[in-house]
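Page 42, continued from yesterday. The earlier attempt failed because a stray header line got pasted into the input along with the sequence. Redoing it now with the clean sequence only.
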Amino acid sequence: MNNPQQRERVIIIGGGAAGMSAAAKARRSNPNLDIIAYERSGYVSYGACGLPYAIKGEIAQIEDVVVRTPAQFAKQGITALVRHEVLAIDTAAQTLEVRNLATDTIITEHYDKLLIAAGGSPSRPPIPGIDLPGVFALRNVEDAKAIHAWISEHRPSRGVIIGGGYIGLEMAEALAVHDIELTIVEQLPQLLPSLDAEMASHVHAELERQGVVIQTSQGVSAINGDDRVREVVAGATSFPAEIVIVAVGVRPNVNLARQAGITIGPTGAIAVDDQQRTNLPNVWSAGDVAEAINLVTGKPTWVPLGTTANKQGKVAGENIAGGAARFGGIVGTSVVKIFEATAASTGLTEARAKAEGFTVKTVSATANSRAHYMPGHADIHVKLVYEAGSGRMLGGQLVGREGVAKRIDIIAVALHAGWTVEQVGELDLAYAPPFSPVWDPILVAANLAKK
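This time it went through. Structure tokens are written below.
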């Protein structure tokens, strides 16, 4: 029987997707580890991507996004401590300083192996009034509950969303269901920077069709109010607002790592190798706080998505337990629902590909989601980005009302495989009239490129 004093202690900073995936994998791989996870918020292991739909009411209760509770992890021999904040890392002594936020007491904990999975935090630009009651960001379960409670108590009729990325657009649908008239203010010239401008225009049109006012190329200069928010000022225009969502992006929580001497990569997130190791011994990192390799460019990238976090966490957990797993990299595949439209992208946009130095060609096509004679068919707009000369696929984007979410995966597979646009055009894709025309929209675009 093993001596408990000889058990290696694994400490995980962060109880989100990466941290708890790592904890579960490490436990399965090595039952003789002491595993402790510290989480600053009140919840671990939850699906943050589901929060807008909980606020919308599509999910019965906000807590339904929680996958596993600390009590459930305890049955697996994993200690998950919520409301605990790690204040400092001493990598020489292999200790952490941890504050129990419930009791405001500080303890020092020793680790043998450490995983930094501290995630990211919503960016908070220095806008006057950003701390007024009624101004929210959305990152965790507590944020969602606070937004839902504000809507229930104050019944706002007008709202402003600052930022036109994924969270901002998902929250537009979530708030509109509560009969809130909405304005989206975006500093960039277009919504959804993961799309090229002409593809983003379809998203813009859907939002306007739903009655959302859109103000692009304009930053917010002030948020005004008294005991609560009353208006948002952007340029020479002020927009009345009884609720404001600040969704201007996420930043990786790297302060602890930087202070501990852990290398921060060119993206601003923690630099890791393909085993999720940092530059320091016995320290790994995974999830929204860590970089990944972009398989199209071969360079480090930072794409804070739950899919990547879970995969990196699993790799880190196996290696912490003594394994030799490797994380292969990403192509940045994402999809977002905007009212009745869906927008998806993978790989590089045309603009990003040119900025990376590629000689770029593109092709665009609009085709039916189903056979034209089938009820419910709708247009799918497709854009493929590929390298001139070689024809190597660099990226793709789709916008439409149906059939978008899984079709983007075809392009993602092509990017992982390093295929050319001609090879994509030769794919044997499933056909039946309720699901696709005989020439799928992806094939239509790829074959246009071949011409």
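Notes: The radius of gyration is 23 Å.
Reminder to self: strip header lines before submitting.
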